[in-house]
Specification:
The strands form two sheets. Strands 3-2-1-4-5-6 form a six-stranded parallel beta sheet, with helices on both faces. The protein is α/β, with parallel strands linked by helices. The chain is globular. Strand 8 and strand 9 form a beta hairpin. It contains eight helices and twelve strands.
Length: 282
């Protein structure tokens, strides 16, 4: 199979390191997808990634790579930049993985999805927590609790993050909740106090709580899911290990090789819609 050449833009994100390591490392020798180009960022960071992945093509602007690669990965930390970076490639028919979040407004998210449709290509975005073994185990357990009565997802997120506020880490909460209980949020209410933001809404009549806890010092706040059903309760942490990005990379590779998007379009939109409502309330 012919190797698909991928470019990365937004290399300041640590996810870019894991993506390059996974796609260009020795263990990926038989994988038909490779990072072949980078859009230049800070000089030392660019050199670090280029050396890590033996990448020789460094473009000063992302536009120089449109039409020259088989796919684009957008890893810019600030989701407000994602629309401008992704849309030209999608309109040209190039598949794009927009690393979390897809966008920071629903208008931008819809513009990205519409560009993919116009270009007849695929686009995806997700929290990498969606693909972890703990999340899969939680999903299996939730299916066995009986009729779901409530769902709570908690974990670290800073409403004052310089990288798009709650969107930067809060996408993990919103995407996991959407994965476990798909559907549109209704009646979003938000409370902020003591370094936390708590959002409450309903999906299909089921109460959902997203608990965003601002990280303090070196204390590690785990991602945690509690689901209460008529038959039993599930309460479990989602462990974020050193290789937590890799399952997401694998999902992107499957999309490139099969042409099938790993996340339904509605589940791409709804986490952004929820977070937009929450940030507006703040």
């Amino acid at each position: 199979m012919e190797t698909k050449n991928v470019a990365i833009v937004g290399i300041e994100n640590t996810h870019a390191t894991e993506i390059v390591r996974h796609l260009n490392g020795e263990e990926a020798a038989d994988l038909p997808v490779r990072v072949s180009a980078l859009v230049a960022g800070e000089v030392e960071r660019t050199r670090e990634l280029a050396e890590l992945g033996a990448i020789t093509r460094i473009a000063p602007e992302v536009s120089e790579l449109n039409g020259a690669v088989d796919a684009l990965i957008v890893t810019s930390r600030d989701g407000a930049l994602h629309r401008a970076l992704a849309v030209p490639f999608l309109e040209a028919g190039t598949p794009v993985w927009v690393d979390k979040p897809l966008a920071t407004t629903l208008d931008d998210a819809d513009a990205i999805l519409a560009a993919a449709e116009r270009g007849g290509t695929t686009v995806t975005s997700f929290s990498t927590l969606r693909w972890l073994d703990d999340t899969a185990a939680i999903a299996d357990a939730v299916a066995g609790v009986g009729a779901l009565q409530s769902l709570t997802v908690s974990g670290p997120a800073d409403a004052d993050s310089p990288h798009g506020g709650l969107f930067f880490y809060g996408i993990h909460h919103a995407d996991v909740a959407q994965h476990l209980l798909p559907g549109a949020a209704e009646g979003v209410e938000v409370e902020r106090a003591d370094g936390r933001v708590v959002a409450r809404y309903r999906v299909g009549g089921v109460p959902v709580v997203l608990d965003f806890v601002r990280p303090e010092g070196d204390a590690a706040t785990p991602f945690h899911v509690t689901a209460v059903g008529t038959g039993s309760t599930v309460a479990r942490d989602i462990e974020v290990g050193p290789d937590y990005v890799r399952p997401g990379v694998d999902a992107f590779v499957r999309m490139l090789l099969t042409g099938e998007t790993p996340v339904p379009v509605a589940q791409l939109r709804e986490p952004i819609a929820v977070l937009e409502q929450i940030t507006r309330a703040l």
